[in-house]
Specification:
Length: about 280
């Protein structure tokens, strides 16, 4: 494969050593990278596989060589620490960008179904039609807030947590989840509910209530640590858990895995999905 030119975008970005990293330079992808691309992810190791693909495809992060050093490793199952610091949602964006820049930008013979007329389609997915969002702030987005439609009132019934009883919150502040966070829980990644619940617990930073006039009341510090995973396993109902999970997946900019195209049967717009399982095929 020939050397690639250009950069990959990071819609969320990361901050390392005070530097704002919003793009990554494409590495020279040769025969060793080709070997990595064509390896299928091991069972329960999908996010480590993301890390391997990224590691052979980017030249450096904050001045530290990535692809070169990764390919020199005796054990290439180890994802470099700097790659693990890439935001989890950015890792998905990178996979699409790597597939189209370093492998192929069109995936042929994909089986789709029109969401309007139900027709079965045999389509070519043109990855260049998928737009990667820009980071419009010029800075890495290190945290985000998920808002609840209805406030949650703390009622644990546990004497040791009496100091928190009656406090309410309608805002949850999370630090940006990293690829490393996802790798830590990739063993349960097939269970999307449990996977995102684990990510939520690991990245939750703060809870507060915001009035209609904008005044803010914090839940006293220590509650998250002392309540632990029971906050997500026992305290929230299924409706709130779904609301939180949806917010975590959509609050920050990310690359969609599809674009819309006119159905050849009914002419209505229907999603053309790019399935990761069909990336890097021989």
């Amino acid at each position: 494969m020939e050397a690639q030119e250009g950069v990959f975008k990071l819609p969320i970005g990361m901050e390392i050593g005070g530097n704002q990293i919003l793009e990554l330079t494409i590495a020279d992808t040769g025969s060793e990278a080709e070997k990595m691309y064509t390896k299928r992810p091991k069972q329960g190791k999908i996010h480590s596989w993301f890390g391997h693909i990224i590691a052979v495809s980017i030249s450096e992060i904050n001045g530290e060589p990535i692809a070169e050093n990764f390919l020199k490793q005796a054990d290439q199952t180890i994802v470099p620490d700097l790659v693990k610091k890439i935001p989890f949602l950015d890792a998905g964006s990178l996979l699409i960008q790597i597939q189209r820049a370093c492998w192929e930008d069109t995936i042929e013979n994909q089986k789709l179904k029109c969401t309007n007329c139900g027709a079965n389609l045999n389509a070519s997915i043109e990855l260049n039609k998928i737009e990667v969002p820009e980071n419009l702030t010029g800075k890495a987005l290190t945290e985000y807030t998920v808002s609840l439609r209805d406030a949650h009132i703390i009622k644990t019934g546990i004497e040791a947590l009496d100091d928190y009883e009656g406090f309410k919150f309608n805002r949850l502040v999370f630090r940006t989840a990293t690829l490393g966070d996802a790798i830590n829980h990739e063993g349960v990644s097939k269970d999307e509910v449990q996977f995102w619940r684990n990510i939520a617990f690991d990245t939750l930073k703060d809870l507060y209530f915001e009035d209609a006039d904008g005044s803010i009341t914090q839940v006293p510090s220590g509650f998250i640590t002392r309540r632990g995973k029971a906050l997500f396993q026992n305290d929230f109902g299924s409706k709130k858990l779904k609301e939180i999970r949806s917010g975590m997946q959509t609050a920050q900019p990310s690359t969609k895995t599809y674009y819309e195209e006119s159905c050849p049967e009914c002419s209505e717009l229907t999603p053309y999905f790019a399935s990761v399982s069909h990336f890097f095929t021989v």
